[in-house]
Amino acid sequence: MTGTTFADLQQEIGPNIGIALMPISSTAASPTLLGSWDTGPAWSTIKVPIAQAALNAGTANPTWVHQAITASDNTAAANLWSSLGATSTAGAQVQQVLRDSGDPSTVVQTQAVRPEFSSFGQTNWSLADQTRFLSHYSRDPHAAPVLQQMGQISPDQQWGLGRIPNSKFKGGWGPTEDGKYLVRQMGIIDTPQGPVAVAMAAEGDDFEAGQGSADKLAAWVKDNAGKIAYGKPGAGKPGGDGQPGPAGSAGDPVVRVDKDGVHTNYGGTQGALSEQSAAIPAPDGSGLDDPQITDALHGRVEKARNHLADAEETLRVGKNAATSMDDTAHDGANKVSQASTPGGPTSVSPAATMSGAPMGAPTAAGPANPFASRFVPAGVPQMSAPAPLSMPALPSFGVPNVGMPAASSSSPSRLAKLSGPTGQIANIPAPGNLTADCTPLEAFAAVIAEARRRGYSLDRALACGSTMLQESGGDARAVSSNGLWRGLFQQNADYPDPMNPNTAIKSFFDKLDAMGGRTSPDIWKTIFRLQQAPSFATDEAAFNHPNSRQEYLTEIQGKHDKAVQMYQQLAASAPSVAL
């Protein structure tokens, strides 16, 4: 439906339709809303957070999850709901899944509003809140098993969003109280501009009419979602090129801001601008309804976005250059330190810089850090370290801190069959079975599994995996340029056999456990102390000392997104494997 505005689509289908769009991005603010339908019963779309709540609680039967999502089986969904306990308890757990994934207001229904239907299916779930939920949920590593099922919907239900290639979606449908029939879907689709969370609904005289409307809505979404969600200018303007444009363009008068007031794209919509026209009138009295004024505003915002993108790229280049200069200076300081120490090199701690190394490629660890359990000798040149970058708060995934079943690390462990990067089945060794030729994915899986076996939460396990990726890129044979730091965690001679990946992982966790890694208030700073200054008594003392290389904290946190991606790959490939 390229060239068709939403107003044209609404005229063709009928007025009682709605779409919400939101980019899959950690910086996205509010959805774009189109159409007059905005909220109503969730019907079977609520099965997604129900399945996730049961997975979080450890009560989910994999068959129930599969049937509830792929076939929209009501019995399977009821079993998942019942597994969560009493009705009020189940509702609270499902509601917590919504809150953890960005839905700020939806209240899960626990009372039988319509006795012939499930209580949870009658939850009032708006299109806006559904897209907020999906935008956050799709980036949560815990979501991988459910998202995988959303990509395998039964053929008889692959209408609407199911007609868009590679979509992950869930539908719901049921009769309205006024004799109509509501059909709705929510999902994640790929667009040239980036992935987009979509929620849409249509009311018809019967299910077939609603399904037909959903097909038309999805066809329009396929062509227009990315350009609207990511704010690309073009469509909707009178006499324009017919391509979909920014929210609020004159051809789409029903696009509006949501209840939070400010839209991600251009700060508002045509409707909102029109409402404010009296407050900011043009000289001729036409105010902000004048197309020339609104076009000018949109143009200014587009220029501002371009300037921001240029500034971010300049910052990235400058940061990389500064990091390279700092590492070179530290390497030089370390060589001076070694040359001035009687009897050979001092005992220093690692700072392997692996940024940018392709996963699976042989890598060499970065230069050693002169700050360690002993300070840099007097007279050695030192650089003043730049202030650490401001890191956003790491996500709380909201699952119980349940470790893997205890097992001897020396006893034979089963192999988990997981899909490798090429899509072929690969045997991922459990902890204790790695070889020196293990792949980065195998090493990462073993680190996460060992952390979970020792009782670390998933958040903490991912921090340990991020540290390994920073130190060696997952290359068990990695050796620093000065030869002092070796293996997965770039360990020195104080560690036994660091080139054995199994020993390296065990030694890392043995020392991290001794520092209180499972319960430390800030796992990242505890890892900082272990890797940078293990002789200090507390995390804060190690981090705040004048000679501390604080940017190391930023470096290991910078691998968190990569760690989440690798975990999602593992979890999606084998959702039944406890990692």
Give me a quick take on this structure.
By secondary structure, this protein is an alpha+beta fold. It contains 17 helices and 7 strands. Helix content is 40%, strand content 8%.
Rg calc: 27 Å
Number of helices: 17
Order of helices and strands: HEEHHHHHHEEEHHHEEHHHHHHH
**End-to-end CA span:** 44 Å
Counting DSSP E segments of at least 2 residues, the number of strands comes to 7
Describe the main β-sheet briefly. 5 strands, antiparallel
Question: Spans of 5+ residues with little confidence (pLDDT < 50)?
Answer: 232-290, 340-427
Q: Would you tell me the structural class of the helices and strands?
A: alpha+beta
The neighbouring-strand order within the major sheet is 2-1-5-4-3
> Into which percent range does the helicity of residues fall?
25-40%
Strand content: 5-15%
Query: Any idea what the shape is?
Result: elongated
Mean pLDDT score: 73
Task: Tell me about this structure.
This protein has 17 helices and 7 strands. Mean pLDDT is 73; it is low at 232-290 and 340-427. The strands form 2 sheets. A 5-stranded antiparallel sheet has the order 2-1-5-4-3, with helices on both faces. The protein has a two-stranded antiparallel sheet with strand order 6-7. By secondary structure, it is an alpha+beta fold. It has helices at 6-13, 47-57, 62-70, 74-83, 87-100, 127-137, 144-150, 207-229, 270-275, 291-340, 440-453, 458-472, 501-514, 523-532, 539-544, 551-557, 560-573; strands at 17-23, 32-35, 168-175, 181-189, 196-204, 416-419, 425-428. The longest helix is centred in the middle third of the chain and has 50 residues, at 291-340. 48% of the residues are buried. It is elongated and about 75 Å long.
